Amino acid sequence: MLYKTSNKDLVYKEIKKLKPLNYNQFKWWRRFDTKSKPLPKDATFLQRIQNGEYEFSHYFWQWKLTEIELNDAYEKYNGNIQMMLEKNGVDFARRKRLMEDFNKDEADRLEALKKGFLREFDMTSDDYENSLLKFDGTTEEFLNDKTLSAIETVDGHNLIVNVYVNDICYGLNVDMSNVVAGTTLTKREDFIVDGDMLIVDTLSLDIAKTEMLG
User: What is the rounded distance in angstroms from the CA atom of residue 41 to the CA atom of residue 53?
Assistant: First the structure.
């Protein structure tokens, strides 16, 4: 074996999640891409998470697929490296470029994800490092786990105005113009989340379209 690489079945499974690309002379080493396209610039952070834009870079699996193919060639030519360089030179070059793609893409995704959490949830860098990077799951699962441990409604008004994230209160950007100062707020934990809708009693809020304050 030339390379100690990932489990073949796992690599093949992840590659099947991608879509094959037509040959591109300028990006010839890339054979696959994600099935979902990046969202436009005005998309929300939550929408980008749900679209998988911050998940593990798919270039890793393309890199590992190339190593598997090179390992097969190594066995085919009985470990003759010179023969491999002659017959599989393109694959060696592909592996190198995919490694570079992965390192850059993964760094970019992690940086964008961090900026998103710091912006949307008023987290510090230490908060982020101590929570997200130790979480064993997808970013969407992490977001669902952290978001909405409780909510606050305005008595006498059809409004959800605050949400609680790990016992920290965050205001929502909702119209409070008709609410008199000092009106009582009621903390509720008996809400449900149905898709993008936050529901309690007869109140509902589209959390994908509602921005947070601060």
Answer: 13
Structure tokens at 69: 């193919």
31, 59 contact by CB (below 8 A): no
Strand pairing category for 150-154 and 160-165:
antiparallel
Count of Cβ atoms closer than 10 Å to residue 60 Cβ:
19
**Kind of pairing between the strands at 197-200 and 203-206:** antiparallel
Closest CA to 15 of 68, 52, 51, 71: 68
Compute the distance between CA of residue 207 and CA of residue 214 in angstroms, rounded to an integer. Answer: 16
Q: Residues 69, 91: contact at Cβ < 8 Å?
A: yes
Q: What is the pLDDT of residues 126-176, one digit of tens each?
A: 877 766 555 555 555 555 655 567 788 888 777 888 877 666 667 777 777
Nearest to 147, CA basis, from 126, 121, 127, 115: 121
Rounded to whole angstroms, how far apart are CA atoms 159 and 148?
Answer: 15
Q: In sequence order, what are the beta bridge partners of 154?
A: 185
Handedness of CA 184, 120, 129, 113 (dihedral sign): positive
Residue 54: name the closest of 120, 122, 107 by CA. Answer: 107
What are residue 2's phi and psi, to 5 degrees? Answer: -85, -40
pLDDT tens digit sequence for 42-69: 988 888 888 889 888 999 999 999 999 9
First to last CA, the chain: 55
CA distance 182 to 150: 21
**DSSP state for residue 5 in the 8-state scheme:** -
